Structures are given as C-alpha cells and as structure tokens.
C-alpha cells in the first residue's frame, strides 16, 4: 500500500495476557485520528473474541483486511469535512468502497448533477477521477462543471507551468474537497440567476424547457466572471455604444470575455458606425419617397 494507507500497531501486554486483552494503539502520519480511534475500538472488539488465546496475529489480520477493503481511508478526513460543512438539504455524498469512489448528487429546484469521483491508489499524489453521470443543466454548464472540476483537481497535484518569482513553493494537496466544493457551489448558483441585461430569469423552472440551440436568442451565455446573460441580450450589449475600453459585467464590473465575441472594441465600434450609416441612408430614401 501507499504511505497514505500505512499505519503502525502497538501492543502492550499485562502479566495475565492472553486471559486479558492486549492494550492496542494505532498510529499513522496520514490516516485521520478520528478514523484511527474508530478502528482501534474495532480492533479491541476483535481481540475480545480471542481472550485466552494469542490475539496479536488476529488483530493484525483484521487491520490489514480493513485497509484493503476500505480504500477511501486515505481521504476519510476530507469526506468527514465535506459531509459536515458542504452537504446540506437534498444534496448527497455516497461512499463506494468497492470501487474506491464517491457519488456526489447536488439538487437545486428541479435541476441536479450527479458525479462519480474516483480515488486512485496513490491518492493524494494523483488527482481524483471525475465523471459526470447525470446532469439536466444546459450543455454550456455541463461543459463548464466538468472541465473546471478537472482543472481544479489538476492544480492540486501539478505545479504551475510558468512560475512567477514571487510565487510560494508549490505544495501538493488533496483534490477531493476542492472539487466537491466547486461542484456544489456551482450547481446551486445558477438556477436563480437573472440575465444582467434584461433582468429576467435565465433558467426556466422546468428543465424540459431549456433552450439548447446555442444560436437562439434566449440561450444562456456564461461569461468569464461567472455571471449569465441571454444570447440576444449579450449580443445587443456588446454591439451597442459606448465602446471605449470594452464592456464590463453589470454585476461585478469585470471585463466581459466570451468565445463568441472575440472582436476588439474598435472593430465592434466601426461595424456599429457602418450599420448606423446604412440605416441613415435607408431612412433618407424612405423620407424622400414618402
């Protein structure tokens, strides 16, 4: 096993051993104290089955089987924190020891996500595996949830490709809690958000009414800062004056970036001016003929 699943078992014997139970103490640099305390009590119960007989080998065999059958023991502290601080309401986190994975389900209104998070043998040296099982959010959010969750997990185990001189030394850290925290926050965040341009709700109450056509006027667009607009609203906002220094989010003031709108503010302004000139020419013709 990896160092993250290793532990030391210490035994002390009274003069009348094995008639009485040996004193058992478990130690580990990485397994959480709470799990060790629980495992110690299980070991004591196991030893009680063999009073009057040698107990050490039986207890060691029990501990070995427990570690082999509980691959999630290397992240028990993270799981405990997640259940205590992050899981609430109808959200669920189910453990799957046989597959060394956890199943996360997050629900907000009629919307939900379900992810399978796999813990590798050499965790936390390696990042968790992330697989979307079910999701009824629009495709734009499905892509965002999975891609960003994978990126968060990667940053936990890989140093930045370009390190700045003042950056602190890279420290490897477990990736499960940051990923779960992200997925829970994001799944709850978007259901009730309004379009920052028209003020109307972006997601319909019934997921069956989601607009999946990414060119449709009412399709939801998520901008870089995390706020949302309708496709038509964002297009109108970006292509309308003023154009100086680009466009900023109505909510947080951050500069708006989006793959669909990559033109510079100068180009957008020039196109808008050209369109206005064409419209004036058309209006003049209409006035002349009327």
Structural notes for this entry:
By secondary structure, the protein is of the alpha+beta class. It folds into three domains: 3-69, no CATH class; 75-161 and 168-189, Ubiquitin Conjugating Enzyme (Roll), CATH 3.10.110; 207-289, no CATH class. The protein has seven helices and eight strands, in the order ββαααββββααββαα. The chain has helices at 33-48, 56-69, 76-86, 139-157, 176-189, 231-238, 265-289; strands at residues 8-12, 23-27, 92-96, 101-108, 111-118, 129-135, 220-222, 228-230. The strands form three sheets. The chain has a four-stranded antiparallel sheet, covered by helices on one side. The model has no long low-confidence stretch (mean pLDDT 89).
Short summary:
The protein is of the alpha+beta class and 290 residues long.
């Amino acid at each position: 096993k990896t160092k993250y699943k290793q532990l030391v078992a210490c035994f002390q014997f009274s003069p009348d051993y094995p008639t009485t139970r040996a004193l058992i103490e478990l130690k580990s640099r990485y397994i959480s104290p709470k799990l060790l305390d629980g495992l110690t009590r299980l070991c004591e119960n196991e030893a009680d089955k063999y009073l009057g007989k040698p107990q050490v080998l039986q207890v060691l065999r029990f501990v070995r089987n427990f570690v082999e059958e509980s691959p999630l023991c290397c992240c028990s502290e993270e799981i405990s924190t997640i259940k205590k601080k992050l899981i609430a309401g109808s959200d669920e986190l189910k453990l799957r020891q046989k597959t060394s994975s956890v199943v996360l389900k997050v629900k907000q209104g009629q919307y939900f996500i379900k992810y399978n998070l796999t813990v590798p043998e050499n965790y936390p040296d390696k990042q968790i595996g992330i697989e979307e099982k079910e999701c009824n959010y629009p495709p734009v959010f499905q892509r965002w949830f999975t891609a960003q969750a994978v990126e968060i997990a990667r940053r936990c185990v890989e140093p930045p490709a370009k390190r700045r001189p003042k950056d602190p030394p890279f420290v490897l850290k477990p990736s499960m809690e940051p990923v779960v925290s992200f997925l829970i926050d994001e799944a709850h965040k978007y259901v009730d958000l309004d379009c920052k341009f028209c003020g109307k709700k972006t997601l319909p109450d019934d997921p069956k009414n989601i607009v999946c056509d990414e060119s449709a006027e009412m399709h939801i667009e998520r901008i870089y800062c995390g706020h949302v607009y309708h496709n038509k609203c964002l297009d109108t906002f970006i292509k309308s004056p003023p154009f100086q220094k680009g466009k900023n989010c109505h909510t947080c003031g951050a500069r708006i970036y989006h793959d669909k709108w990559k033109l510079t503010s100068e180009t957008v302004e020039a196109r808008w001016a050209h369109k206005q000139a064409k419209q004036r020419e058309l209006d003049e013709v209409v006035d002349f003929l009327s």
